[in-house]
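Quick check before the chapter quiz. The format below is the same one you will see on the exam, so make sure you can read both the input and the output lines.
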Amino acid sequence: LSKVDDEDVAEFRQTILDNAIFDAESLIGIEFGIKGANQDGTLTLDFSTFYQKRDDVQYKNSIVNGQSFVDFYENSTDGKNYGIEASLHYMLSESLNTFANIGYLKTEISNITRQDGSNIDGRDQAHAPTYHINAGVNWQLSDSVNWLIEFDAKDDFYYSFSHDNKSDSIFLVHTSLDYQAAKWQVSLYARNLFDVEYANRGFYFPNDPRDEYLPHVWEQFGEPRRVGVNFKYQY
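Here is the expected output.
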């Protein structure tokens, strides 16, 4: 509403006023899960499945006119989310154990009309990758030294409801070497070990005079490789 009288978006003044208020969203969900372990405790499993029905889904939309834009919230008719989540831990030996956390998600959104007049009906929701995996290995090298190797994998996803551009799928590797004494701990770590360049947000608008302000995707990237040392002392 702070831009309702801006000359750059004067032709959209009524649209802005029409979206000054949005309705409450409601959600009804059902979930079923199982937790368990084998007799000697070397294997543990946590599994759940869920279904969510959303009505009057609140989502962020945008009006873009040249280099001027107005963000606002409005409602679609409905949406749904369903999927599974599983967490698995397995001890290969007294000094070596593995873990895996897996998520599978399907989403749908209905009746979103964008500025260009196109309609989204049945498309995946924004920022809703189909799968996400975090897995790794913990190796207890000695009573005081532990080595962790893990990876994160995530499917591509839509950046927004206002356009159809998507991220790339990603695969990241992390590691840390920990030394534990009586009251203190030192950790040498590396995140995104192979310095993978990946985007986690994306916007679509014109901003470059060199191409006469044609619309492009502008991406915000995740953190590059980070190497560091943590020191903890308990007293």
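If your answer matched, good. The mean pLDDT is 91.
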